Amino acid sequence: MKIFVVNAGSSSLKYQLIDMDNEQMLAKGVCERIGAGGAIQHKAADGRTYHAEVEMPTHSEAFQQVVYALTKSEASVISSLDEIAAIGHRVVQGGSLFSKSVLVDESVIEKIESLNELAPLHNPAHVLGIRACIRAFGEKTPQAVVFDTAFHQTMEQKVYMYALPYEYYEKYGVRRYGAHGTSHRFVSDRCADLMGKPKKDLKIITCHLGNGCSITAIKNGVCYDTSMGFTPLDGMMMGTRSGALDPSVLTFIAEKENMTPHDISELCNKRSGALGISGLSNDNRDLAEAAAAGNRRAQLALDMQRYQIVKFIGAYAAAMNGLDAIVFTGGIGENNPDLREKICNEISCFGMACDENTNHLRGKEVRISTADSKVAVYVIPTNEELVIARDTLALISK
User: Fold this and answer.
1) CB neighbours of 73 closer than 8 A, spacing ≥ 6?
2) List of residues 6+ apart from 133 with CB closer than 8 A
3) How far is CA 100 from CA 27, 96, 127, 129, 262, in A?
4) Strand order in 222-226's β-sheet?
5) Is 138 left (phi over 0), alpha (psi -120 to 50) or beta?
6) Measured between alpha carbons, how far apart are the two ends of the chain, in Å?
7) pLDDT of 150-208, one tens digit each?
8) Number of neighbouring beta carbons within 10 Å of residue 61
9) Is position 148 annotated as part of the catalytic site?
């Protein structure tokens, strides 16, 4: 059975086709510059590729190109759309309306739209993708939505509430929602499998580290706390995001620089983080190279990043009253042995040591803590698309 997985952005459309009989990816690709030209990059699992510069005024035209790539291009992998059993969509924000994945109907689409204010850059694009997908594949092909926030809906109110007047929670839904939940769910499940223990018996901290970073505490099999908050801006510093700040810093800067709320949002989301500190780049590889050449600000950005990861791990271990495992995932987490080693050294008080024989590996599933460590440390490449496909399959199987 084949499941088509979609991640629609405002001007892009990422996709994968997965054969669920063996959970193997058959093809993947991306449509870019939707509404401003258009291009598709498509690759089959056997290495065949297809590329085209094609006008894509809307997501509907993008899906037409995807259908062509899948069925008729030199990198086609199926003969017709009839081979696709169902479609699964990634949706960033489910608010408190969705605590699990669901099949798509008009009421579900309307609820996703009602949350647009909580994710203005993402949810409207997801809805465009869902509707365009219905037009391209027809209404008979079942579709499911999988929410990044759903995994975090198990947080207790004492954890997800902000200390603001309660009326803002009641009127506007101002609370912690988290993000990257699909990734945290996948790697924590896999961690329990590797340890050979039920997830409900473990206390795990998962570190999704990329251009966007979030850290999650998972206790007794469910999310207990997570670093991202009302939006993905909260938590630790990231590639271009500031992470958590004293709110007075922003009002102070706004008054000094005569900035609007939109200006402040742009500042915190796009000009801060590692880029803002280094003045050089938001990419850890560039920062490491510059730091090795003596760039003080690049080194400062790396030091700040590492310190904040260590601080979150320590806080979550205390909050859960224990720790059994740590997982590194995401582009940085999977491919930065130096960062992983330094973090393990700085939290050795928990009873762990880094194994140099395994930690040097990049992008591989591996245990990087020594056999005698009290806390197991793993690198587990994330696979959000597979989670979406699994959820979609489970829903249509009912």
Assistant:
1) 42, 50
2) 6, 63, 87, 89, 143
3) 27, 10, 18, 20, 32
4) 222-226, 213-219, 203-209, 325-329, 376-379, 366-367
5) left
6) 15
7) 999 999 999 999 999 999 999 999 999 999 999 999 999 999 999 999 999 999 999 99
8) 18
9) yes
**Residue 352: how many CA atoms within 13 Å on its side-chain side?**
23
Q: Which residues pair with 298 in a beta bridge?
A: none
Instruction: Say whether 270 sits in a helix, a strand or coil.
Output: helix
362 has pLDDT over 90: yes
- Rounded CA gap, 214 and 225, in Å? 11
For 204, left (φ over 0), alpha (ψ -120 to 50), or beta? beta
Which residue out of 46, 148, 193, 372 is catalytically annotated?
148
| Average pLDDT of span 90-98 | 93
- Residue 61 near residue 68, CB atoms below 8 Å: no
Q: Does the reported pTM lie above 0.90?
A: yes
Q: Rounded CA gap, 45 and 288, in Å?
A: 33
Report percent pLDDT > 70 for the chain: 100
Closest CA to 376 of 223, 195, 221: 195
- Contact between 325 and 204 under an 8 Å Cβ cutoff? The reply is yes
DSSP track, 102-157? EE--HHHHHHHHHTGGGSTTTHHHHHHHHHHHHHHH-TTS-EEEEETTGGGGGS-H
Side-chain-side CA neighbours of 230 within 13 Å: the count stands at: 14
Segment 248-251 long-range contacts (CB within 8 Å, at least 24 positions apart): none
CA distance 325 to 313: 11
- Please answer whether residues 8 and 125 qualify as being in contact, where contact means their C-beta atoms are separated by less than 8 angstroms: yes
Q: Which two tokens stand for residue 122?
A: 């993402």
Nearest Cα neighbor of 223 from 303, 122, 153, 328 is 153
Question: How far apart are the C-alpha atoms of 147 and 179, rounded to whole Å?
Answer: 9
Q: How far, in Å, CA of 275 to CA of 287, rounded?
A: 9
